[in-house]
Amino acid sequence: MDSVLEFLLSIVLLVLTIPLQVEARKVHPQITVMGIVYCDICSNNTFSRNSYFLPGAEVKIECRFQATSPRTSEQITFSVNRTTNKHGIYKLELPAIDGIECARDKAIGNLCRASLIRSSTDACNVPGYKSTTDEITIRSEAANLCIYSLNVMNYRPSKRDIALCGN
Hints:
Layout: H1 2-17, E1 30-39, E2 52-53, E3 58-66, E4 75-83, E5 89-94, E6 111-118, E7 126-127, E8 131-132, E9 135-140, E10 145-150, E11 153-156, H2 162-165
Parallel strand pairs: 1-10, 1-11
Antiparallel strand pairs: 1-2, 1-5, 3-4, 3-6, 6-8, 7-11, 9-10
């Protein structure tokens, strides 16, 4: 019995004297890229009382994310097409990617761009603001979420309705 106790005691002492190296893994955020497309009825590049959000519009999203590894200069790039929902919102959700951080400025090298592909209606199909790289980055550490909200893009009708919009 003494030999078993001595054996267990020696294992405990061994474990206590060897420093355990546990690498703390950083939790990377889920990334969401989103924006809005609307119909600019009065062709003045503003969302007026006559404007409406454009469901079914096709948008191309292109992103480049720089990995934050100190040893490498890895980059992830991709391009996807999305269709706006009934509220004119297009959205791309990416799961957490190892080495990709939420960037509040362009210094890290993360960049997303959205471009109009096709309108969902012939009544409003002339591109106004047709691409954007301007964004607002929102980070929620509690929800482990990073949102890249791109500026709005719009289509306009081929003819301006003077009765509705004035001169």
